[in-house]
Specification:
Radius of gyration: 12 Å
Strand order of the largest sheet: 1-2-3
Strand content: 5-15%
Largest sheet: 3 strands, parallel
Shape: globular
CATH architecture: Alpha-Beta Horseshoe
């Protein structure tokens, strides 16, 4: 299974999640397509409080979706996007 398909499977599970509080997907080479799937799931998930997406080769393409997640998902208290290539300007849009 490639990373994008794996991310889609995880995203599907997250839309039905009612118990998982922390999701650590660091160093999984999700790239922007995989992160987009996770972000779409986070828009529907109301259980997670902590998400780690560090070191997943994410770029500025991910920041607009992540900003949407941050503004709409009030349950999340921490999102780790470290060790990605988001760019300094993009990160200003992704603050909790």
């Amino acid at each position: 299974m490639n990373q994008s398909a794996g991310a889609e499977a995880i995203a599907h599970a997250l839309t039905h999640n009612t118990t998982l509080l922390r999701l650590d997907l660091r160093l999984n080479q999700l790239a922007d397509d995989g992160a987009a799937a996770i972000c779409r799931a986070l828009l529907r998930n109301s259980t997670l409080v902590d998400v780690v997406l560090a070191g997943n080769e994410l770029t500025e393409a991910t920041t607009s979706l992540m900003a949407q997640v941050i503004s709409q998902n009030n349950r999340l208290t921490a999102i780790d996007l470290s060790c990605n290539r988001l760019g300094q300007v993009s990160l200003t849009h992704c603050r909790l």
